[in-house]
Design goal:
Length: 68
């Protein structure tokens, strides 16, 4: 099944959930937010949010920095 992740076409298995996509990218889950079809998905719902053909997923990685 095909979805779009951060603007890139991505092939995933049937029944995949957001957690599967996040782990496949290898990002630290403490510092990301996920949007599915223009709606923010709560972290507690990632494991139960099943993806469908054509879904658009945006994953934002927060980066710290700056001076005090």
């Amino acid at each position: 099944m095909n979805i779009v992740v951060n603007g890139n076409n991505t092939e995933i298995g049937e029944g995949s959930v957001i957690t599967d996509v996040v782990h496949s990218i290898g990002l630290n889950t403490d510092r990301i937010a996920v949007e599915l079809n223009k709606k923010i998905v709560r972290r507690t719902d990632w494991g139960s949010t099943t993806l469908s053909e054509g879904d658009k997923v945006e994953i934002v990685h927060f980066v710290g920095g700056g001076t005090v």
